[in-house]
User: Fold this.
Amino acid sequence: MSKTKLATVWLDGCSGCHMSFLDMDERLLDLSSQFDLVFSPLVDFKVYPDSVDVALVEGAISSVEDERKIHHIREHTKFLVAMGDCAVAGNVPAMRNPFGTAAILKRAYTENVSAQPQIPCVIVPELLEKVRPVHEFVAVDMYIPGCPPSADTFFTVLTELLAGRTPDVGSLTRFGA
Amino acid sequence: MTVAADVKTLVIDGKHVSAGGDQTVLEVARENNIFIPTLCHLDGLSDVGACRLCLVEVKNSNKLTPACMLRVEEGMEVTTTSERLRHYRQTILELLFAERNHVCSVCVANGNCELQSLAQSQGLTHVRLPYRNPKLDVDASHERFVADHNRCILCTRCVRVCAEVEGAHVWDVMGRGVDSMVITDLHQPWGESSCTRCGKCVQVCPTGALSDKGKLGWDHPKHPEFLTYLNMMREAQ
Assistant:
């Protein structure tokens, strides 16, 4: 039987979800016999594969690059999981929404600097006007709220998913957990 | 002369229960260990039926009725859990999350918030509605307390406890609908209002909207149970 192709993705989040994922520690070794990690910031794959079974997406959609990525990921993924409060609800990145992108950029790149104030416009992707959760762009198959979800939550969810079952996420975690 | 007790019998979730004639369905349900979720209700305060989370179905009525405002009637048949009620309760919670800026992870009430706990108990894992992201103020003008309007769900517990228990009526509501705001006095900063600094509003607030400056950072337990004790002691006098 072929192993499950697992991907983890890092969009506009703090990487805390990935840190919590790693906090599974030795349990990751037990699980790793059941999946191939085909894309992740934890490893050095540059291109998202054509066919992924399960993708855990960390982070909100904050820039045009995030938006392009999430559409590509959705197209090439069977089961998409919104991992953590940023992906599920916008969370801290979305705290800029009440102020507007222009005001945030001005605050960060001109008001608070003394040398060469300028708003970056090359190489870095353009920010969207609003930071929004993943499911406002593409269909999401499962939500794991939490900031970050605990390692135990990840272990239970992954164990169940790899066994072909759908876990009851609501009993494991909550917004802000 | 003997006064006949006003006792009524009704059915809640198939269970036959008896109640005093002036009791609400919510009171009777709780007395009989039947859980109905609430946010604006608090034992010791008057009921206003604001949050609509305690909606129940009553036989022979198409309308959903808030249990906290529903007086018992003889022979009444009430259903507190159904697919329809679950759907409406989840949607109400989603509306509350979408209406203001509830960022649980950086909230002083994270882990001690009734809105957050209810979301989990009602199986809410995400909000299907677009977030409004309004720009709202944080009033830190008071020497002891902070009002963060981003976290307010307009349950008006603060308004009622201040008026009904403290007797000061510093808190009130201004505006209409989604633009409603709790205010102190006639929209003066809290620190410049006629606040008596008793802190009752902070303790009964179900979210992180009202908090104590002395409790810095995460993990801000509140103790609304003081209210029933306070009322009990006052009645005993």
In short: The beta strands of chain A are 4-10, 35-39, 52-58, 61-63, 77-83, 127-132, 142-144. The CA atoms of residues 108 and 119 of chain A lie 9 Å apart. The mean pLDDT of chain A is 96. The radius of gyration of chain A is 17 Å.
